[in-house]
Design a protein that fits this description.
It is globular, with a radius of gyration of 19 Å. Helices cover 26% and strands 31% of the residues. It is built from six helices and 16 strands. A hairpin with a 2-residue loop joins β6 and β7. By secondary structure, it is of the alpha/beta class. The strands form four sheets. Strands 10-9-8-11-14-16-15 form a seven-stranded mixed sheet, sandwiched between helices. Strands 1-2-3-4-5 form a five-stranded mixed sheet, with no helix packed on it. Strands 6-7 form a two-stranded antiparallel ribbon.
């Protein structure tokens, strides 16, 4: 399964996407407009919906060894029970930004940077950072996701790259890093709306994010490069995320925006989450 990703169409609460040679139809609440090209929707390989539960049609057509290059990173795809595939393509532009920024910072500072990826999922951003020569720490509370990320590292010939693979609760890990005096040059965090830690610790973004950001601030080095915060939680707009980062970083430059699924010219961009980043300029 090669040849990248593209959004083919969207509308009527659904999105139509191509992953390599596979075309998927999945729910997307924000696609409230009408589809652009009804004929494209007849090319579907598999469908997922939530009518009466979580339902796949054609799931068997997605083999367990489907790999696709997205944003310069090869990712293993697998159809999960919740309709996910192990990658969120709307983040690929951020992977490219992380890669290019860390490369530039490495050249400027004359050393490899230390990159921390929290709530790191299947590792796309971690591997983009590793491609830039960064020393990475990849953390997720789910062992299965960390194992999946390690598989993705091997697909990108990065199995021997300097990556620490951590299965842990984010706040517990950050508290340990503060006590140990460990520091990082760049941090990415993509907190869930609601989640559980390694030992069942409860994480609710409204209650836990400020604590998390305070700890992130404490593990930043003396001359850090950036903090990047992303979210799919409704209400956490680009300005909200930017304001949260400003609480801990009064100097430097702030940027923010929407994460977008996109395709060829003429295909309407589909917003799917938001981001904000503090840059030490």
């Amino acid at each position: 399964m090669k040849n990248g990703y593209e959004l083919l169409d969207s509308g009527n609460g659904m999105k139509l996407e191509r992953f390599g040679d596979v075309v998927l139809e999945r729910p997307c609440a924000q696609a409230v407009w009408a589809p652009r090209d009804s004929s494209l929707w007849k090319t579907v390989t598999a469908r997922f919906d939530r009518v009466g539960g979580h339902n796949w049609q054609g799931r068997g057509k997605l083999s367990n060894d489907c790999n696709v290059e997205i944003g310069g990173v090869v990712m293993k795809l697998s159809a999960t029970d919740f309709g996910h595939l192990g990658v969120f393509p709307e983040t690929r532009g951020l992977w490219e930004w992380i890669r290019s920024t860390l490369r530039a910072e490495k050249e400027k500072k004359g050393r490899n940077l230390k990159f921390l990826n929290l709530f790191a999922y299947s590792g796309g951003a971690t591997l983009a950072a590793a491609q830039a020569g960064a020393e990475c720490c990849h953390l997720d509370a789910a062992k299965g996701m960390v194992d999946w990320a390690r598989e993705n590292a091997a697909l990108n010939n990065l199995q021997d790259a300097p990556i620490r693979w951590i299965v842990d609760d984010v706040i517990k890990f950050l508290n340990r890093e503060v006590r140990r005096g460990n520091k990082y040059d760049a941090v990415l965090l993509d907190p869930p709306s609601f989640g559980r830690g390694k030992k069942g610790e409860l994480y609710k973004i409204e209650e836990s994010l400020m604590t998390t950001l305070d700890l992130v601030h404490q593990v930043m080095g003396d001359d850090p490069s950036f903090v990047l915060l992303t979210s799919h939680t409704p209400g956490f707009s680009p300005i909200v995320l930017s304001n949260l980062l400003r609480q801990f970083n009064s100097e430097g430059e702030m940027e923010c925006g929407e994460m977008l699924l996109s395709g060829k010219p003429g295909v309407m961009d589909l917003p799917n989450g938001n981001w904000a980043r503090w840059i030490n300029r």
